[in-house]
Amino acid sequence: MQSKFNELSAKRRSIYALGDNITTSPEEIFNLVKETVRNSPSAFNSQTVRAVVLFGKSSDKVWDIVEETLQKIVKDPTAFAKTKAKIATFRAGFGTILYLTDTDIVHNLEEQFPSYAANFADWSEQAIGGAQQAVWTALAENNLGASLQHYNPLIDDAIHEAFDLPESWKLRAEMPFGSIEAPAGDKDYLPEDQVFKLIK
C-alpha cells in the first residue's frame, strides 16, 4: 500500500532555522490553518481546539514575552545568553501559531456525561495533538518549516493579556513557522520490535 500522507508526514520535521522569505500571504496561511484545524477530529466532535495565528509585530510579541519571562527565571548570564539565542530563531520566522484548549467545553462535557468525565481532559489533549500534527504537515506540504514549543504555563497570563484571549482558552503550545533556512538533521527511530506488534 502507498500513502501520500506518509510522504508528507516524513517531510514534517522540526525546523529551527526559520526565516521570513515567504511569498504566501498571511491570509492564505491563516485559511490553511483554519481549514486544517476544522477538519481535525475530536472526541464527541467537541471541537475544543483554538488556534491564534500571529504575524509581524504580534508574532514577535510572543517571543518577547517568552524572553522577558525566562530572563526573570534564568539567573546565570551564560545560560540566558543561550536561551536568548534560541528564542531569536523563533522570532526570525514569518509567524507563530498559538494552540489553546477551550476548557469551558471540556467542563460542560464533564457535566453532561459524568460516566466519561475523567476522560474529557485527556481527549482534548488528543484533539489538540492531532490538530498540531495536521497543521504542521500542511505547512510542510507548502514548504514552510515549523517547530512546536511549550513555554506554557510560564507565559500564560502575559499571552492572554497581550492578545485579549478568553480566560477559558488554556494555552497548550506555540508553533513558530517560516521559510526553511536550513534543513532538519537526521531522525533516529527506535527499533521496530520495541514499538510495533503484529497479531493475527
TrEMBL record:
Keywords: Cytoplasm, Oxidoreductase. InterPro entries: Frm2/Hbn1 (IPR033877), Nitroreductase (IPR029479), Nitroreductase-like (IPR000415). The keyword Flavoprotein does not apply. It is found in: Cytoplasm. SUPFAM superfamilies: FMN-dependent nitroreductase-like. GO terms for molecular function: oxidoreductase activity. Residues 11-178 form the Nitroreductase domain. The keyword Cytoplasm applies. One of its GO terms (cellular component) is cytoplasm. This is Nitroreductase.
